[in-house]
Amino acid sequence: MAENNSAEDQAWATATTKPDGNVKSTPSPGVIGELEPLEQYLDDHLRSAGLTFDEWMGTFGQGQYQERNQTILRFLKPHQPRRIFEFACAGGFLARLLLEHVPSIERYTCTNFSPRVVAFCEKQLLHFRQCDVGRINADVMSSSDIANLRLADYDTFLTTSFEHIEHDLKLIARLPPHRCFVFGVAGFDDPEHYRVFNSAAEVRERYEKVLTVGDIEELGQEIRKYVTITWTK
Ligand SMILES: C[S@@+](CC[C@H](N)C(=O)[O-])C[C@H]1O[C@@H](n2cnc3c(N)ncnc32)[C@H](O)[C@@H]1O
């Protein structure tokens, strides 16, 4: 089992997986999804855990996160992606891994809606000339950021944080057709998660209506994650 070392992990340890399906039965008030409350929640956590922001971000490059990123690398590399757009990134660790191991990449756009995550990624990815970093809100219902992007320029979309995006199906509807979309979702509850999945079959069931779903890999045991490679229709 991977080490249990991030803010998310600590919250996950006390959470219970919803037994009754893949969408939380409690409505959104229970989920911290807006930028300001999320930053406040994180500050409170950093204070109580005695961590700096950079130390906390560093955890997303270790343990089960690193393992998850390796799975994404394995899924993606054979498809020779050229232009990748990542939204709601967990730092630039995935970007760095892919840029270092996938020579077909010509452009990588790494995004998050938090100014301090964006600043962290800018520093981290400074030396990759194919990489740009942007402040983008992936919630298509509360922001026009996604609508204002030229998504057709990209052949591949990525996120390791799809459970953090409230309107996942609406975001998928904005992606151009016939593109590769690799994403991760969680199999455990957390104050920041809009959805919890109990099996790969549940992941397939939710997304196969709007995506062509390929492999799904289950990672972890208690702190379960599902990583899948899909294609937009
Ligand atoms: C803390 S990471 C968690 C990573 C993920 N669970 C994993 O396994 O890698 C989630 C990131 O999603 C970002 N995020 C949440 N909602 C977002 C949104 N609407 N648009 C862009 N980024 C968002 C947060 O700023 C945060 O940095």
Helix content: 25-40%
Unreliable segments of 5+ consecutive residues = 1-7, 9-22
State the secondary-structure class.
alpha/beta
Alpha plus pi helix count: 8
Order of helices and strands: HHHHEHEHEEHEHEE
Spatial order of the strands forming the largest sheet: 3-2-1-4-5-7-6
CATH fold descriptor: Rossmann fold
Distance between the termini: 36 Å
- CATH architectural designation: 3-Layer(aba) Sandwich
Molecules bound to protein:
S-adenosylmethionine
Total domain count: 1
The top-level CATH class is Alpha Beta
Topology of helices and strands:
Blueprint: H1 7-14, H2 35-49, H3 53-58, H4 63-76, E1 83-86, H5 93-101, E2 107-112, H6 115-124, E3 131-135, E4 156-159, H7 168-174, E5 180-186, H8 200-207, E6 211-219, E7 225-232
Parallel strand pairs: 1-2, 1-4, 2-3, 4-5
Antiparallel strand pairs: 5-7, 6-7
Helix pairs in contact: 4-5
The chain binds S-adenosylmethionine (SAM).
Descriptive notes:
The relative contact order is 0.18. The protein has helices at residues 7-14, 35-49, 53-58, 63-76, 93-101, 115-124, 168-174, 200-207, and strands spanning 83-86, 107-112, 131-135, 156-159, 180-186, 211-219, 225-232. Residues 1-7 and 9-22 have low confidence and may be disordered. Strands 3-2-1-4-5-7-6 form a seven-stranded mixed sheet, with helices on both faces. It is globular, with a radius of gyration of 16 Å. With 233 residues, it is an alpha/beta fold. S-adenosylmethionine is lined by residues 8, 33, 60, 65, 87-88, 90, 112-114, 117, 137-139, 160-161, 164-165, 184. S-adenosylmethionine binds at residues 8, 33, 60, 65, 87-88, 90, 112-114, 117, 137-139, 160-161, 164-165, 184.
